[in-house]
Design brief:
The chain has helices at residues 2-26, 36-44, 71-74, 115-125, 133-142, 167-179, 185-199, 206-219, 231-236, 239-249, 265-275, 327-339, 345-353, 385-401, 406-419, 427-440, 446-455, 459-469, 483-488, and strands spanning 75-77, 83-88, 94-101, 147-151, 156-163, 255-261, 299-304, 310-318, 320-321, 360-364, 366-367, 373-381, 476-481, 507-509. The protein is built from 19 helices and 14 strands. 43% of the residues lie in helices and 15% in strands. It has two domains: 71-275, Metalloenzyme, LuxS/M16 peptidase-like (Cytochrome Bc1 Complex, Chain A, domain 1); 299-509, Cytochrome Bc1 Complex, Chain A, domain 1. The strands form three sheets. The protein has a six-stranded mixed sheet, sandwiched between helices. Mean pLDDT is 91; it is low at 1-42.
Amino acid sequence: MKTRLKNTRFLVIVLLLAASSLWAQTTPSAKPAATTQEKTAASSAAPITLQAPASWKDLKYPTLTFTPPRAEKYRHVLSNGVVAFLVEDHDLPLINVSIIVKAGSYLDPAGKEGLASLVGSQIRAGGTTTRKAEQFDEDADFLATPISTSIGETQGNATMNTLTKNLDESFKLFFELIQHPGFQADRLTLAKSQILQQMERRNDNTDVIEEREWDRLLYGDSFFENKYSTKASIDSITRDDLIAFHKKYFQPGDFTLAVSGDFKTDEMIKKLEASMQGWEVSSEKIPDVPKPVFTPVPGIYVVNKASVNQGRVRIGHLGDMRDNPDNYALSVMNSILGGGGFTSRIVSRVRSDEGLAYSAGSSFGMGVYFPGPFMGYFQSKSPSCAQGGQIVIDEINRIRTTKVSKEELDTAINYFIETFPRSFATAQQIAGTFANDEFTHRPKNYWNTYRDHIKAVTADDVQRVAQKYLHPDQLIVLMVGNVDDMMKGNPDKPQFAIGKLTTDGKIHNIPLPDPLTMTYPKAQ
């Protein structure tokens, strides 16, 4: 009680002092009157005026000067052969660690689709061989050290963020987890149950349906990307399967490290060496990511989702590979076509001019391991999908037959040049960019010559690559939504019809598969 009274009296005194200070600052006598000399100086000072330009086009900016960092400055090869990119940054007492692993769902055994993904999630969720999952979670939380692991289609990842003062303990946790995951049985059971619940919703959202069917149309059912997990495959996966997959693919010989933050490089090298000491480096070669052997079939494909009033539309075909020398011109071409936001043609026409869609654009995929997809896309109310689709096709044809304007070309090139430094804005980005380049074998001088290659792109180059890599006669048109409403079209604009989007006019119906077996019923 006495302590409470003392605290109350102290609070009252503080408030009184604050009030008196405020009163003193606001009364006329609180500040001495300005002298005659000060008044004269104030009145004679020239007023500052800022003249706004008449148009944003009149704005002038100094030339951007930026020299990208060089990978070799940060690249280190550890004694076990692991390549690590170490980038110091002492602004904050934080350290980020990321490991890229050569593993992916393409390594799933037949009949056990979903195994790699489960391994990726359960490395983190399942504790270690010496710490139960609950204890590991508590230890990581106590150190304020977020740790995550995952495995995607073509690579695995493990990341850690920690305070500098906790680095040693955090490293101990992190590498214990990566080397000796426990795959705790109850956590695995829970994860499998959650996956089965997610499977049941596979046909709920049109964006998920669109992505799935687009991949099937481009790469075929036999391609690893399209071999989906099923209830049977998930049920068949055991803890021993996870242990065997981890043992085979998670080993330092297939690691690439990115470390950034508040450390000294020499000391970090020693800590990395110590953390992986005694961890055997396997000499077994990991299989390469396979390439698709499927030949896409052009045509119009529709998936009926009667409960929605908007259609999702993709129009395109296979793109190309990342290391194609034409990739700079293709990037500029795609930016003008639909990848450059509001200044691009598809966005301007579909969204701004016609008001048919909020989301629209294009992308030209240049894959690392196999060709990426080229596509123009948009979402629109069902009756206007045919009109939007025709606009996309018209723009694909126009960029092939007519040279782009100087303004369009300059806007696209300047975008790539001006945003270039973003790839190296932080120490974490520098380390991550170079680690990914190492992992995917990007040419070493890529970033040093990138802007020169972009600047060299001409209007002739844009038209040349558009004619070479865009194929109007090979277009796949995919529409997901209420098919009846899309087919009816807009009665005020009968000149637009889905059947007119390709030369043969044939429309192929894709039925929705059983979400747990991924078995497709025969199309009617």
